[in-house]
Specification:
- A hairpin with a 4-residue loop joins strand 41 and strand 42.
- The longest helix has 31 residues, at 3-33.
- The strands form 12 sheets. Strands 1, 2, 3, 4, 21, 22, 23 and 26 form an 8-stranded antiparallel beta sheet that branches.
- This protein is mostly beta strands.
- It starts with a helix and ends with a strand.
- The protein is globular and about 60 Å long.
- It is 9% helix and 38% strand.
């Protein structure tokens, strides 16, 4: 062997050690900057009360809005570091809240209730009832917490009012927007009723249809017409004024199965079980139908054979209010089999369903047990909850007919904070989680403050969801009408993606008793980004949806019967079509299809072109 060869051989161990150390160092640098070193994670732990993403952001992984599978592009799969899936264990999602600075005291009263007092002079007295009996110092048998809004439902589609626990998803998928036009592709006739001193045609507030893409397995065991059972189906499920629940093929508008007759009007929005189980839930808006009267009920249907399997009365004996309607759209916590619902009787219901579903046998059953939350607010004696609750982890947000806004720990059944909203608040609260914290957007109407010929301010607010502190407020003067309220009844669009800096509100009767205003406000400051005068007021909630090109578009319907396709960056119309009559109901969108019911006594299927 030559001396040159011996020199090379003697350097091999040193070269090997050098490159091994270099590889280890580069690996450590990569893990450190990606936040995956164990010592780094423990050293930089966060406090959930101060960081809004203490649990969720670290584990958040979701399916994209277009339904495609998340992951690396072709050829990069092995190089991609996948984030772990979000936990389905509620204990991992809990937020440990502290008493807000606004709280003065909490005390237990002699009847088993508790009372909290706040610095603004407000007081709330509350009861927890199990089997209709007050439980002092209630301890939950298990914990409930919702995860990120993208993980609310296992189903593709819009399965509840505004689609998720933040109430920010009135659309699903992506639309191929080329022509920026709207086209009516089908209609389906529905009826009308007379009741409670009025005439109720078509579909009303909030009246959003459900758009459900069933799994093959579940579709096969349901009583769907043979024509649609054999192919992929997105089903429209729509309870309306005439007392029927309609089931339609979203693409054609043809009945996918027989309609169900409830017998009484539904004004609110139903809910399909987010686990993909064949269960449908709905409240009741009126207890009179063309001279026939009956009891208020909340109903749960088995959709295998469209049979009612459970109901509970709206005229609840433990409620402080006897009016038993239910316009609120309930949500179901799929991790714990728990239904949470609000009633116009003023109660919050937490129901462990004890669901048993056997897809192979084609059977489903429930055996609910109830816990109820009852309260009295010093802000107003008015009872009744008509908006739909929103949820951040184990915290629930809702407002009532008297204007009391509440943050409720759904496990302890205890209010965390309350806020004086100033008037009836039917618009559903929306939530947003950001790097700066968790916030809610809410607005009231002109109802309790009004008298004929008068005006009052509709108050739009951004509030810190964890503390109840006001971030900003924007006021809009509105006319009062006793039978058609001014102000905000629609649920806002909380901007995402390319419009993530704005929130869009639809305000009724801002000039006269027939017009309105559509306004985009800066999320951070509340300043107006743009404002548009509406010739016709609207109670219908604006709907944002995403195009395949990544641009956000918006639909808005009004009382004149027009559906507008709007650019949400400017507020300008891109197209407008007539859907026959007043639209109080809110549309839902699935890819390129929008569906809505109107006073024209029709359900419309509209293609976004």
């Amino acid at each position: 062997m030559s001396s040159q060869g011996r020199k090379k051989n003697s350097l091999l161990p040193a070269i090997t050690v050098f490159f091994t150390i270099l590889l280890v160092a580069l690996t450590a640098l990569y893990l450190m900057f990606s936040g995956n070193l164990p010592w780094l994670n423990t050293a930089t732990g966060t406090n959930s009360a101060n960081s809004s993403k203490a649990h969720v952001s670290a584990v958040n992984t979701t399916k994209p809005a277009d339904g495609s599978q998340a992951g690396a592009s072709q050829g990069q799969a092995e190089e991609t570091v996948k984030e772990p899936a979000e936990s389905t264990n509620p204990n991992d999602l809990l937020i440990s809240w502290k008493n807000p600075a606004s709280l003065i005291s909490k005390k237990t009263l002699g009847d088993g209730s508790a009372q909290k007092s706040y610095k603004d002079g407000g007081k709330i007295t509350f009861w927890t009832l199990v089997n209709n009996k007050t439980v002092k110092d209630y301890t939950p048998p298990y914990n409930i917490a919702f995860g990120s809004p993208e993980n609310y439902s296992e189903l593709e589609g819009v399965t509840a009012f505004r689609g998720n626990n933040y109430r920010t998803a009135p659309s699903w998928g992506k639309a191929g927007v080329k022509e920026k036009k709207l086209e009516i592709v089908w209609t389906h006739d529905i009826g009308a009723v007379s009741g409670v001193g009025s005439y109720w045609p078509g579909a009303g507030w909030t009246g959003q249809p459900l758009l459900v893409h069933w799994s093959d397995e579940v579709r096969q065991i349901m009583n769907i017409n043979a024509e649609f059972k054999s192919r992929d189906l997105v089903e429209v499920i729509y309870p309306v004024f005439d007392g029927n629940v309609y089931f339609l093929d979203m693409e054609t508008g043809k009945p996918s199965r027989p309609k169900m007759n409830i017998g009484f009007t539904v004004k609110g929005t139903g809910m399909v079980d987010p686990r993909g189980y064949p269960l449908f839930y709905t409240g009741q808006g009126l207890n009179e139908n063309d001279g026939k009267t009956g009891a208020f009920k909340y109903r749960i249907f088995d959709l295998i054979n469209q049979k009612l399997i459970y109901s509970f009365p709206g005229n609840d004996p433990v409620a402080f209010r006897s009016w038993g309607a239910n316009d609120s759209s309930a949500l179901l916590n799929r991790y714990t089999d728990t239904l949470i619902n609000c009633g116009e009787n003023g109660l919050v219901y937490k129901a462990k369903l004890n669901t048993k579903f056997d897809s192979k046998a084609g059977t489903i059953s429930i055996d609910p047990s109830f816990t109820k939350y009852r309260y009295k607010s010093s802000y107003s004696s008015e009872q009744g909850i008509e908006n739909s609750p929103a949820f951040y982890r184990n915290l629930m947000y809702f407002a009532d007919n008297g204007g009391t806004i509440q943050c409720l720990d759904i496990n302890k059944m205890e209010p965390v904070w309350i806020y004086k909203g100033g008037d009836d608040t039917d618009s559903t609260i929306t939530l947003e989680e950001t790097d700066e914290g968790v916030f809610l957007y809410t607005a009231n109407e002109i109802d309790k403050r009004g008298r004929e010929g008068s005006r009052a301010n509709s108050n739009i607010r951004k509030i810190n969801a964890l503390t109840g502190e006001l971030v900003w407020q924007k006021d809009y003067s509105c006319a009062y009408q006793s039978y058609i309220n001014g102000g905000v009844l629609a649920t806002p669009v909380v901007g995402k993606n390319d419009i993530s800096d704005i929130v869009i509100f639809n305000i009724a009767l801002t000039g006269s008793t027939s017009d309105g205003t559509l306004v985009a406000l800066d999320k951070k400051t509340g300043a107006e980004i743009w404002k548009r005068h509406l010739e016709a007021y609207s109670w219908s909630s604006p709907v944002d949806f995403m195009s395949e090109e990544g641009k956000t578009y918006m639909l808005l319907c009004d009382f004149k019967g027009d559906m507008h396709l709007i650019d949400p960056k400017t507020g300008e119309d891109l197209d407008k079509i007539s859907v026959g009559g007043n639209v109080e109901a809110s549309p839902a969108v699935y890819n390129n299809m929008a569906v809505v019911g109107t006073y024209a006594k029709k359900i419309y299927g509209v293609r976004i072109k």
